[in-house]
Amino acid sequence: MQQEVTLFWFRRDLRLEDNVGLYHALQSKFPVIPVFIFDDAILDSLPKNDARVGFIHDSLAKINAQLQENGSSLLIKKGKTQAVWHALIQEFHIKEVYCNKDYEPYAIARDLAIGTTLEANNTPFFSHKDQVIFEEKEITKADGLPYTVYTPYKNKWLEKYKINGGVTEFDATSWYGNFYKSNFDFLTLEQIGFEESSIKVKPHNLSKIANYHETRDFPAIDSTSYLSPHLRFGTVSIRKLVNWAVRKNDVFLSELIWREFFMQILFNFPKVMTQNFKSAYDGIQWLNNEADFKRWCTGTTGYPMVDAGMRQLNQTGYMHNRVRMVVASFLCKHLLIEWQWGEAYFAEKLLDYELSANVGNWQWAAGTGCDAAPYFRVFNPEIQLKKFDEKGIYIHKWIPEFNLGYGKPMVDHAMARDRAIATYKAGILKNEF
After folding, report:
1. Which of 107, 129, 151 is the last residue of a domain?
2. Which residue positions does UniProt flag as site: Electron transfer via tryptophanyl radical (predicted)?
3. Residue 75, in any domain of the structure
């Protein structure tokens, strides 16, 4: 007779602390096996030295070390998710399965399929809200429709947070004794089919956030928290972060609310993954010049702030938020290359790649998204450089040849601005005006 067990399925919540689904799983009357699945549907499209896979593996190793302190261990599987679950059903007498919700289209479809598989096995499948404070249907307009403008969404979000008296954190340490006693083999990165990357995710540092509102626009000041990859993969709790930000810095809190705004936009309007939120912009005639795109990718446009940002991204997997806006605006408006090209490149390179935020921010920069920058707003990279890196500290860090006769800009700003505005005007459907 197999022992009856509960499985907790880790996904975007790679921590034991303040993990809602795990909190509820551990209160099951069956011992809990924690499991993580390296999904071939995702891994097959990644390079073998993808730094994000290495970070996931490192995070799982930390979880496994914590579990071993409680006489348990993490069960790691690799393969097509559906096939893995069919195998797990044969391997264990599974009475319940718990996880935390994921709101991206692929994850929603995956979880529906797994739920059907488990239902056929008479196994209840419980999913919990964990990676957001308020999920897709909790912050709506009076008519129940989703917000598509950030500021009223933020105001409603803050109002509901206050009415709720904050947000509760979930401490499951007193139930750690309910982990299934085991010593599962911990798969190495090589066994998963990957190798170490020279690019690493940096530890997060909340101490730098106190003055976030004063320093956030200056890329030369190392004042960022480096939290974004940790939020993306759930190595930190959004509840702890929000409860901290409410006390410490309103501007930083607003950035966390932007994250949830874009997540509910993606959920309610899944077309934005590949299409303009504003369909009136579908008629824009982009140039989509591949040689120009390559110069943008390699950081050789002749505009120092653009080039420094792209080189930082290529070498580290990070890019400062102010620079991201300049870089994205340059691609879409100076070069007239569709936002989808830039979004795909960022998806490949960013350590903190988050589908909803990446799509949302790229459409914001292109002017085609909800609550986006107006089409006639074209960042001047030279003015941005003077305002936010006046001494050239950021530029010199990423462009060591800057003082040795740096190349001329690949396109004149004034010409590019006029061309962009004329192209947008000609392409935007009449009903936009």
Report:
1. 129
2. 286, 339, 362
3. yes
Residue 8 lies in a domain: yes
Q: Residue 431's pLDDT band (boundaries 50, 70, 90)?
A: very low
Distances (CA, A) of 290 to 112, 154, 253: 39, 39, 39
- Number of compact structural domains in the chain: 2
Domain edge (last residue) among 68, 97, 129:
129
**Which positions make up the binding site?**
212, 224-228, 252, 255-262
> Where residue 376 sits, what CATH number does that domain have?
1.10.579.10
Please report the DSSP string for 79-142 in residue order.
E-HHHHHHHHHHHSEEEEEEEE---SHHHHHHHHHHHHHHHHTT--EEEE--S-SS-TTTSB-T
- Which residue segment(s) compose the domain that 3 sits in? 1-129
Q: List for the chain the helix, strand, coil content (%; round to 5).
A: 50, 10, 40
CA dihedral of residues 195, 201, 202, 208 (deg, nearest 10): 180
384, 386, 389, 395: CA torsion to nearest 10: 90
In a domain, 285, yes or no: yes
Which one-letter amino acid corresponds to residue 120?
A
- End-to-end distance of the chain based on CA atoms, in angstroms? 70
Strands 93-100 and 4-10: parallel
Q: Which residues are annotated as a binding site for FAD?
A: 212, 224-228, 252, 255-262
pLDDT tens digits, one per residue of 183-197: 999 999 999 999 999
- Condensed to tens digits (0 to 9), the pLDDT of residues 400-411 reads 988 877 889 999
